[in-house]
TrEMBL record:
Residues 144-373 form the Sigma-54 factor interaction domain. It holds the Pfam family AAA_lid_14. Keywords: ATP-binding, DNA-binding, Nucleotide-binding, Transcription, Transcription regulation. It comes from the Bacteria. PROSITE patterns: SIGMA54_INTERACT_2, SIGMA54_INTERACT_3, SIGMA54_INTERACT_4. This is Sigma 54-interacting transcriptional regulator. It comes from Massilia antarctica.
Length: 456
């Protein structure tokens, strides 16, 4: 190990002591005597060294105190090398900033170990002060797991966005955490004690979106036997989160724009105008800009929603977070299912890292959930992961794994074919497959399929 570099200082009265003491040999310590300062009031200039050793006798206590008060030793810790001092004198030096003390007559071994320890502590302190400051993220943001720079940069903006009452458009592929992000904005805002209401516009049949958002009057449809207030009324005072806002039909977009501009709306079939004090956050996983170009999304509404924006990166662009996220989900599901699963094998991590994650964090979450359930021991192995395009092939998997994998592949293929047949219309695709629209939608999201790609 490199020697600890020490400068040794003493008052002019102790020049001889300085010379004698500095000429002693200490293994692992390099002593550099520092010319004593004739002016006791002026501090000895700092010099690059690991530790400052300050020789102090009873007669030079005042000088030593002045040196410590003046801080001329720079950042390096000071060790008082004492001769004839009482305990309370030493205490006084420590109180003024000396890091340690050693009696002048002490042996080499004691001095060397103390100096090593001080240097290590000092290096640690320097490294910590050079490290970027710990992210001052609010605990509410801790649900959003991730350390990668492109992700953290977006998270860091959330407290500022929360402080404003303007609209925020949250962009990102499916499963990247847009809703979690919107929730954080709401719960950090002054509206936190008021309702949080989320609605997925893509999951609602287009003819029902407007009524769902703004309610309807009695008799507005044949089945509308009762007046019904919509989600906008439910969100009064709070935040309204419109997920997949790009799937909103153009007619409803006009109503939403009025709602944003005037804070007013009319329930379907009603002549009465209602007022609502609601902040609107919106999310889109598509290219909303190109929908504007194509005339499928109102430009004025786009600008209104997009006053502030957040753009969450897809998981494939923050793969350095994969181990952190995987262990997070592993721990969570092991706790939920009361399973003693606490590790991911290296092969399992490699398998996760080789996959492209079109469904992003949500897909990873589902994958780890299944893995915890399927896993037999304490470690999740590569074979416990049901991921499509397994390079292992089915033949070498246990039956239950091979079956789960085949089901995954089938679901994806089936949903994609139905969307192709129905030109991306979820309602029609759900009907054609004999499934509830919501259940069909869940499958679309689970596999990270972009339904808009199939629209004509
Ligand atoms: N950074 C993250 N840390 C922990 N969990 C996350 C993170 N991002 C997403 N998730 C989890 O992934 C799932 C999907 O998240 P969320 O619903 O917020 O995504 P989304 O982008 O709104 O998806 P979609 O566009 O499909 O609605 C949730 O269960 C959420 O808890």
């Amino acid at each position: 190990m490199e020697p600890v570099e020490c400068r040794v200082i003493a008052a002019p009265a102790h020049l001889q002591w300085l010379q004698d003491w500095s000429s002693r040999g200490y293994p692992g310590v390099l002593l550099r005597p520092w010319s004593a300062n004739p002016n006791p009031a002026a501090p000895l200039a700092a010099d690059a060294c690991d530790v400052t050793l300050m020789l102090v006798g009873r007669d030079t206590l005042a000088w030593a105190r002045q040196q410590l008060l003046a801080g001329g030793q720079g950042d390096s810790p000071v060790v008082a090398v004492t001769r004839g001092l009482t305990g309370s004198m030493v205490q006084g030096l420590l109180a003024l900033g000396a890091s340690d003390f050693v009696a002048s007559e002490h042996g080499a071994e004691e001095l060397t170990t103390r100096l090593w320890r001080l240097r290590e502590q000092q290096r640690h302190r320097c490294a910590a002060s050079r490290a970027p400051p710990a992210s001052p993220l609010h605990p509410l943001l801790s649900k959003l797991v991730g350390n990668s720079l492109n992700f953290v940069r977006q998270l860091e903006r959330i407290p500022t966005l929360a402080a404003s009452d303007a609209g925020v458009l949250i962009l990102g592929e499916t499963g990247t955490g847009k809703e979690l992000c919107a929730q954080a904005i709401h719960y950090l805002s002054k509206r936190a004690s008021h309702p949080w209401v989320a609605v997925n516009c893509g999951a609602l049949p287009s003819e029902l979106v407007e009524a769902e958002l703004f309610g309807h009057a009695r008799g507005a449809y044949t089945s509308a036997h009762q007046e019904r207030s919509g989600l906008a009324a439910e969100a009064e005072g709070g935040t309204f989160f419109l997920d997949e806002v790009d799937s909103m039909p153009l007619s409803t977009q006009a109503k939403l724009l009025r709602f944003l501009q005037e804070k007013e709306y009319r329930p379907v079939g009603s002549t009465k105008t209602r007022h609502a004090d609601v902040r609107v956050l919106a999310a889109s996983n598509g290219d909303i800009g190109s929908l504007v170009q194509q005339g499928r999304f109102r430009r004025d509404l786009y600008y209104r929603l997009n006053i502030l924006s957040v753009s969450l990166p897809p998981l494939r662009e923050r793969m350095d977070d994969l181990p952190l996220l995987s262990h997070h989900f592993l721990k969570r599901f092991a706790g939920e299912f009361r399973r003693e699963v606490n590790r991911l094998s290296t092969a399992a991590l490699a398998r996760l890292a080789a996959y492209s994650w079109p469904g992003n964090v949500r897909e990873l979450e589902h994958t780890l959930e299944r893995a915890v359930l399927l896993c037999r021991g304490e470690t999740v192995e590569a074979g416990d992961l049901d991921l499509p395009e397994s390079p292992d092939g089915c033949a070498c998997l246990e039956f239950r794994h091979a079956k789960a994998q085949a089901v995954q592949a089938f679901e994806r293929m089936y949903i994609e074919r139905m969307l192709l047949l129905c030109q991306g219309n979820i309602t029609h695709a759900a009907q054609a497959s004999g499934k509830d629209r919501r259940a069909f939608w869940q499958l679309v999201r689970k596999h990270g399929i972009d339904a808009a790609r199939y629209r004509g």
